[in-house]
Amino acid sequence: MKLNKIFLFLPVLLISIFTLVSCEDDSVDKASTPNDLVSFGDYPQVVGINSGETIQIEGKVYATTTTSSDRVINLQVISQSLYNDANPADQAVAITTANPDYFSVPATVTIPAGSREGVFQVSVTGLDLYDENGVNGKRIVIGIVPSTDYASNATYIGTHAVLPTDVEDFEVISDRMVLKIRENFLCSENHITVQIFTDGYGEETSWELYDADLVLIASGGPYATATPGGGETRDLCLADGHYVFVAYDAFGDGMNDGTNAGYYKLSKYDAEGTETVIAQNGTFATDETVEFDLP
Hints:
Keywords: Signal. By secondary structure, the protein is mainly beta.
């Protein structure tokens, strides 16, 4: 009788011991296996800054698991792209355009033990934020440096080799944080913005703005090829009066290529920054004209 009880008890004991050992092994693996996914938060982010002002912008990285020790994630500023260099007409990869003299990014960010979140600060000074065409706004693009200690989101752009003998013409784009830094626009008259959001054929899109005497006062485009969501936002300070805006599409199919819906948008902002949309559309043929009056 006692012998039977012992035989019945042994399998239960062995299962319990095996379970305890397995749980301990799992916890060790989770703490040491480089399968943790690390990524940035929701970007791009548009940040306004006064001319000459220095501000701190908070950035965050997130991990899928917690660990028992601090994790140090290496950061880098993305200032060039092999894909863009090989395809100058198709600037599909967002890179940093801001002057490095006026911003700084830490080399690392730490995710504390027991946490899934790490916080870092990007310092930016509001200088040299207009490009050669007078467009307000430049980018700071930050990437996570690849490591065997963690994984990061990645996609390929270009032609990925299928066989070892194929020519590899592609670029790996890891998870990136994109900051769009714009100088706050000061206007004592009518603050107007012209926003262009391109479809996949930005090179077909351009626009012009005329005053009441049909004198050209502003224009933009063509834009980058095959870059959906490209374009610009132009700030204008206009006196009271009558204006004529014309959007053009060189191919004659408007700003919707059938897959990507682009558009133009004219807006007016009051002193409190409240937006009033004057006109917005992307569905037209060769051109579309909008006439409006200020105030």
